[in-house]
Amino acid sequence: MKVNHISKLIHGKQILSDIDFQVKTGSIVGIVGRNGAGKTTLLRTMVGILDPTQGDVLIDEHSVFKHPQLKEQVIFVPDSSEALKNYSTKEMLTLYKSIYPKFDEDYFHKLMRRFSLSPINKIGNYSKGMKALFSLVVAFSTKAKYILLDEPTDGLDVIVKKQILKILVEEVSTNEVSVIISSHRLDELEFMANDIIMIKDGKVDSHYELDEMKEMYRKVQIVFNGDMPDYISQHVDILSQTGRVYTIMIDQQDKDIYQKLQEASPLLYEELPLSLEDLFVAKLGGDEDVS
Amino acid sequence: MFRKALWYQNYKQTRMIIWMILALFVLHMPFQSILSLETWQEREEQAQQIEDYVYEVQAWDVLQIFSQGLLPLILSISIITLACLLIGLERNTRRNDFTFSLPFTRKHLFLAKWCYGVVAISLFHLINFFIAYFIIYQSEYRSSLYLVSWIELLWGPLLGFIMFFTFALLIGTFSGEMISQVVLTISLGILPLGVFLLIQEMINVHFRVHLSSHIWIEYLTPFMYVFSITTSVQAILMPIILTGLFLWLAVYLYERNKIEHNGDFLIFKVLNPIFLVIITFCFSLLGGMIVSSLAPWNADALRILSYWIGFTTFLLFSLLLANKLLSMNIMFKGKA
Questions:
Q1: How confident is the model at residue A290, as a pLDDT?
Q2: Which of the ends of chain B has fewer CB neighbours closer than 10 A, N or C?
Q3: pLDDT exceeds 60 at position A286
Q4: Torsion angle of alpha carbons A231, A234, A238, A243, nearest 10°?
Q5: Under an 8 Å CB criterion, which residues of A touch B?
Q6: What percent of chain B has pLDDT over 70?
Q7: Is residue B66 part of a domain?
Q8: Which residue range is the domain that position A153 belongs to?
Q9: Do B97 and A76 lie within an 8 Å CB cutoff?
Q10: Residues A159 and A260 grouped into a single domain
Q11: Would you place residue B167 in the very low, low, confident or very high pLDDT band (cuts 50, 70, 90)?
């Protein structure tokens, strides 16, 4: 699946701007960004709900907007099951079987049993966790190649989250499915995503493979005699500061920074494990300006 | 055009109104024909008691069963509701996201809605028509059926309902949500005749001239096809032409829908100024008509003055109202 220079203007505001990336088969792509960055708009555009102002989404080199039947290979799971809340499980089965030709009914029942989901007359009567699990059960039963999930674990308890993350990883490894997830839960993405796409102000701020991304930066706790010298602060991302104790992120490509740090003779220099959250804070905004 | 999933989805979201429409058709034709036969019999018995008076069923009596009266009005309201549940309510909720994410072209999505409604209306209409026709045909009043033409009895009302349903769906392709679809279907459904009456009244107040109506104004008013069925060929031709025209335009607009504007009054922002002008113009004329009617009939100068007071007052109101309407956004948000 290829997202080809997508731009989207809504109510005169540029929501997405020249978004360009590719989703490899059998991978989990995390789309991260702050509230209002355009993550949901991107997913809705990728599945043809919204028309892009510019650009295209290609599957097997064909546009999903010109050939909507290609969307048999894609399923979008929104953050709410509002749209189909009045359907029974049986009706959902009938509906999805008639939409997705590869729908696997046996697999559907198997997953329902696995997650102890009993048939119900109204999906809306399931608990929030059960609705989220049910949406995934339906999505994976369609045997679609690309599964787009919008905040799949938002507001769920730990047990359900673990179940969801487990099935996601299993599906990707066994069925060659590609999963594209927009999420705020960076710890979860860190655990499973291969690729991370960071979106800032509707643009791709950075796109890395997670391991490669971690190699590119170092997280360091550092203490100076006084304040951090300007010639250093201008070249690092300050993740946090408590008194004279700074937690900073250093770009490995900046070759001169280590020389400068040595010259500043810090009282303490200690490397810390780098998390996706650190990268998120450094790349997409500090603690103070949360939107 | 026949995609099982889409028909299933359409039926699921309109199940209740579909059965209501069926019930209304049953009441409208078969049930009403049974009651009418009883009424005609009773009238005939009463007539026998009066010397030199013979009761005869009139064409009007027969038309009441098949194409006139209150039930066609209730049916047309139900048809608007059906169209609104198929398009408008999708926009107010998140169902539109689901529908547009399906592997079907937007043309298919729209045509599935149209075919679903047209098949339901036609089927219900035809079945109930023939039952009602048979009830009268096997009775002693069989000859009354020859007083009216098949255009008046069957084709006019059926084509009128189909055209009106297509019109209500067309409105749904450019209105942003359910309430605006209802409001616009009703107001645009009577617009040509309504505007004519308002202009007629304005000319009458100022010049004491009564502008006579033209049959084409009625032909261009969609609501008229539900109530006023004539025997002319136009009664068949016009609904067919209008259905074709509305369907083509509706598909064209639905394919170009920007659903990020769902919940707004209108989907296409380019239409905002046009509707602003239409709303304020019509409301102002209405205001003039209402206030001038309060003045004494023979006081010409006072009537004209009242007209412009009403016109200006309603102009200001409608400008405020139209601005609010065109900037509103209504979305129903349920729990996740």
A1: 40
A2: N
A3: no
A4: 40
A5: 10-11, 44, 47-51, 68-72, 74-76, 78-87, 91, 94-95, 98-100, 124, 128, 131, 154-155
A6: 98
A7: yes
A8: 2-201
A9: yes
A10: no
A11: very high
Are residues A175 and A263 located together in one domain of the fold?
A: no
- H/E stretch holding A284 reads helix A276-284
| Nearest-10 crossing angle of helices B178-189, B191-207 | 50
**What is the interface pTM, i.e. ipTM, of the complex?**
0.84
Average pLDDT over residues B51-62: 84
* Pairwise CB contact (< 8 Å): A76 & B101: yes
Determine, yes or no, domain membership for B75: yes
Residue A73, pLDDT > 90, answer: yes
Structure confidence at residue B183 (pLDDT): 93
Residue B330 falls inside a structural domain: no
- The answer on A122 and A76 residing in a single domain is yes
| CA–centroid distance for B122 within its chain | 16
Residue B257 to chain A, least CA–CA distance (Å): 9
Are B234 and B288 contacting, i.e. CB atoms less than 8 angstroms apart?
A: no
Three-state DSSP string of A164-231: HHHHHHHHHHHHCCEEEEECCCHHHHHHHCCEEEEEECCEEEEEEEHHHHHHHEEEEEEECCCCCCHH
Residue B334 is nearest to which of A70, A82, A98, comparing CB atoms? Answer: A82
Q: How many structural domains does chain B have?
A: 1
Total structural domains within chain A: 2
To which H or E segment does residue B240 belong?
helix B234-255
Q: What is the pLDDT of residue A261?
A: 84
Are residue A186 and residue A227 in the same domain, yes or no?
Answer: no
Query: A65-74, A99-108, A261-270 — which is least confidently predicted?
Result: A261-270
Chain B: closest CA distance from residue A280 (Å): 26
Q: Are A167 and A177 in contact (CB under 8 A)?
A: no
Chain A neighbors of B100, CB-CB under 8 A: 48-49
Q: How much is the average pLDDT of B230-243?
A: 85
Give the CA angle between residues B194, B200, B203 to the nearest 5°: 145
